[in-house]
Amino acid sequence: MNLIVAVDEKWGIGKNNDLLFSIKEDMAYFRATTMGKVVVMGGNTLRSFPGGKPLKNRVNVVVTRHTDEDVIAVANLDELFCALKDYADEDIFVVGGASIYHQLLPYCKKAYVTKVFADGGAEVFFDNLDEMDGWTLATKGEEIKAGDYTIRFDVYQNQTVKKYGE
Ligand SMILES: NC(=O)c1ccc[n+]([C@@H]2O[C@H](COP(=O)([O-])OP(=O)(O)OC[C@H]3O[C@@H](n4cnc5c(N)ncnc54)[C@H](OP(=O)(O)O)[C@@H]3O)[C@@H](O)[C@H]2O)c1
What we know:
Elements: E1 2-7, E2 12-15, E3 18-19, H1 24-34, E4 38-42, H2 43-48, E5 59-63, E6 72-74, H3 77-84, E7 92-94, H4 98-104, E8 110-116, E9 124-125, E10 135-139, E11 143-146, E12 149-158
This protein binds NADP nicotinamide-adenine-dinucleotide phosphate.
NADP nicotinamide-adenine-dinucleotide phosphate binds near residues 42, 44, 64 and 96.
């Protein structure tokens, strides 16, 4: 599986159960990367979407202790790994939030990281991949002007991917 995340300059990713920024270039990148794929998220991230509704045209798998008829709801990581057996590993994208990224990071091969060069005043953070053993910056994107922000689309690679569902 892979993951996709947008981080600020402190690796912050959210506050008040919402994103730090609304950047249309990043939204388009997220849509293009995940369209038609399987998106794995935590309960808070699902509840942060408009109306608490799943992402359209994607298989939504939600790790939650609650039930939800609109998505594939799994109660823990064992159930998640079982559910993911039905899909090709390269089609699976972890889309947050902080708790789910942290728990699934060891199982991810690639991290698609949008860097936003600003301080969003975050309350929740992603692990700093520049300081994490086993992770290397594989692709450093060009810096792009996106509205009021400068952003960059980077890709990190995990050299020590943990296998799941065995
Ligand atoms: N910048 C980005 O790219 C990005 C992307 C996504 C989200 N975010 C932000 O991240 C924040 C949300 O992160 P978060 O850490 O609070 O929430 P989260 O990871 O989305 O969800 C946490 C919830 O997931 C469920 N959960 C997590 N681990 C579980 C386990 N092992 N077994 C069963 N259930 C489990 C529980 O759900 P229940 O409470 O439903 O039982 C838990 O309350 C928001 O601010 C959001 O906007 C940022």
